[in-house]
Every structure is written in structure tokens, then in C-alpha cells.
């Protein structure tokens, strides 16, 4: 499967069900609550998956913040067997393109403190990072990633 071509496409209900089944394994801990159905049913127009050999190997749940012209990446997961094979880049490129077409001016994502892998990935994709104290409430700093989108 690792030599099979990969393609990015819109997430379907079957894909969402698969994500809910595998996310704890892919993330290495209980995270199913982060894949809240709201991000598929109500905000899922931009949800994407990467498929390889007929199997979903990565997903991105994101949306456009109402009235803000900001595309927000909420949750990304990649099959541990296919990490470092550009699955994340494919997902982010597809999301960025969709946000650009929808008129967004900026992209945004956050992660918890100490997630150095996320910082390296976002920086490699051209995002800026700032650490903001109390972002998630008192004593809960977060790394906040942003990326300006070029206007056509």
C-alpha cells in the first residue's frame, strides 16, 4: 500500500465513521471527543481525507470561521504507518486551496504546549507560530499558528 498513489478528496460519512474508530489509535490516546460530529455534519464542507490503496490514511477537519474570512484547522490525523510521506502536506494544501477559493484571507490552527512536531510541520508549510499565554483559559497557553493567504 505504501507505493499506491494517494489522492485527496472530500470526507464522506463512511470516512467520518472510520476516523472515529481509528483516531485514538492514530493519536495514541483518548481523543475521540475532538472528532465531534459538529465538525462533519455542520461544519464539514471543507473536511478532507487522503486515500491510499482504497483506504483512508489521513484526515483534516476544518472550517471557515463565520464572518472572519479565516480557515480554521481543527483536527488532523494521519495513519502512523504513513507518517512522513506527505499525507499532512496533501491535506493542508487541499484545505488551503478550498479556503482561498472561498475568499479567506488567513488560516489558523492551535496546538498544546510541547508539541514540537506540530510546530515543525506548520513552519515547514509556511505558517507562523506564536505562543499565547492563557489562550485556552487561565494558565493554559497554546501555540497559535497563522498563515496569510495571497489574494488573487
3D architecture notes:
By secondary structure, the protein is an alpha+beta fold. It has one domain: 3-Layer(aba) Sandwich (Aminopeptidase), CATH 3.40.630. The chain has four helices and seven strands, in the order βααβββαβαββ. Strands 1-2-3-4-5-7-6 form a seven-stranded mixed sheet. A hairpin with a 4-residue loop joins strand 3 and strand 4. The chain is globular, with a radius of gyration of 15 Å. The model has no long low-confidence stretch (mean pLDDT 91).
Question: How do the helices and strands line up, and which of them pair or pack?
Answer:
Elements: E1 6-10, H1 13-27, H2 38-41, E2 48-52, E3 55-65, E4 70-78, H3 87-101, E5 106-112, H4 116-124, E6 128-132, E7 142-148
Give descriptors for this structure:
152 residues; 4 helices; 32% strand; 7 strands; Aminopeptidase; alpha+beta; seven-stranded mixed beta sheet; globular; single chain
Outline:
With 152 residues, the chain is α+β, with helices and mostly antiparallel strands.
Q: Estimate nothing, just give the exact number of structural domains.
A: 1
Task: Report low-confidence residues grouped into runs of 5 or more.
Answer: none
Output the number of helix runs.
4
Helix content: 25-40%
- Structural classification: alpha+beta
SSE string, helices as H and strands as E:
EHHEEEHEHEE
Largest sheet: 7 strands, mixed
Look at the structure and give the mean pLDDT.
91
- Based on DSSP secondary structure assignment, what is the total number of beta strands? 7
**Gross CATH architecture:** 3-Layer(aba) Sandwich
CATH topology title: Aminopeptidase
The N- to C-terminal Cα distance equals 38 Å
